[in-house]
Design brief:
This protein is an alpha/beta fold. The strands form four sheets. The chain has a seven-stranded parallel beta sheet with strand order 3-2-1-4-5-6-11, with helices on both faces. Strands 7-10 form a two-stranded parallel ribbon. A two-stranded parallel sheet has the order 8-13.
Length: 333
């Protein structure tokens, strides 16, 4: 067991959606021995994420990487690094930028943790599975068969491959997050969830939009995703961070694919409104990179001992809208 109270926990990407939620989760465990690593001048929405949270130190990624590179004495009390800091834009095309932020940065932290006996938990992504034709099984060791659909997915996949090649996966934990949504994502702009976008659309126009389907097996609105509420993502992440004997890649999802129309119905129901959905053309740049079906196999996580019940899609959407979006609150408020 990795006792998070016995050392400092570093959360990189700590002002972002999952990062700030993880700090919130640590605070709920009465832990504030936390370092928050994120950009020096976060956006106004990110500052709102941090407002209710408790942490001992705030530092930028460049400063933190420098501390790691020089094995600074400042790091002597670190017990765990939860590395969530990365470029998460699925439309980013600057491969050099992605290589530095998503591959090199992760490798630097991993090597330091292994050399210093520090628990290392990092964010991989369900995007590493590509279109799903090769399955989405976290127990499949043939990682090279997976073909991500965009540079972001490839940057995450490259570290998974490196970690496997160097046998790091026998000592660390990689988290393949599926479609995480919930409070503290307003800073993400176009990358925020459909729930957040639809809420704004419905408030302004009374309707929401979804992409048309260009796959004969899926009607408009019938495309399917594994939607994971951020509160469940936090519980899974912190549970794995505490389990010293849980190593390797783990899918983090609900385990049940749901259609976009199910999501839409949940949104309108939570708002007490009649459903009104308009289907729009998908941008050309996305048509050959679109995932029509994602579903996390979470048997590995369950077999490792994670027993918590998960929010249903309807419960999660209702909690998000009524407890956070409508009153404009953040986790911890």
């Amino acid at each position: 067991m990795n006792d998070l109270s016995q050392g400092i926990t570093v959360v990189t990407g700590g002002a972002g959606l999952i990062g700030s939620a993880v700090i919130w989760g640590l605070n709920n465990l009465s832990l504030d021995n936390v370092w928050m690593v994120d950009e020096e001048s976060p956006s106004t929405d990110k500052i709102k994420n941090l407002g209710p949270l408790r942490f001992q130190r705030k530092t930028s990624p460049s400063v933190f990487r420098d501390l790691i590179a020089h094995n600074s004495d400042d790091l002597k009390d670190l017990g765990t690094i939860i590395h969530l800091g990365a470029c998460s834009s699925t439309t980013e095309t600057n491969e050099a930028y992605l290589d530095d932020n998503n591959l090199q940065y992760t490798a630097e932290l991993c090597e330091w943790c292994l050399a210093n006996g520090v628990r290392f938990v990092y964010a991989s992504s369900a995007a590493t599975y590509g279109d799903g034709a090769q399955g989405m099984d976290d127990q499949d060791e043939d990682l090279r068969k997976f073909q991500p659909l965009n540079p972001y997915g490839w940057s995450k996949h490259q570290f998974d491959l490196l970690a496997q090649e160097r046998n790091w996966l026998e000592q660390i934990v990689g988290l393949k997050y599926f479609n995480v949504f919930g409070p503290n994502e307003e800073h993400k702009g176009d990358m925020r969830s459909v729930v957040s976008k639809a809420y704004r659309q419905i408030q302004d126009t009374g309707r929401m939009t979804l992409f048309k389907s260009y796959h004969s097996d899926y009607p408009d609105g019938g495309q399917m995703r594994d939607f994971l509420y951020v509160k469940d993502a936090v519980n899974m992440t912190l549970w794995l961070a505490r389990q010293s004997d849980a190593c390797g890649l783990f899918n983090l999802g609900s385990g049940q694919a749901r259609a976009w129309m199910d999501l839409a119905k949940s949104i309108f129901s939570a708002l007490g409104k009649e459903i009104a959905v308009e289907f729009i053309e998908m941008p050309e740049m996305l048509k050959d990179k679109y995932q029509y079906f994602t579903e996390a196999k979470i048997q590995k996580l369950r077999s490792a001992g994670f027993e918590d019940a998960l929010f249903s899609l309807e419960e999660a959407v209702k909690d998000y809208l009524q407890s956070y979006l409508l009153p404009d609150r953040r986790l911890g408020n």
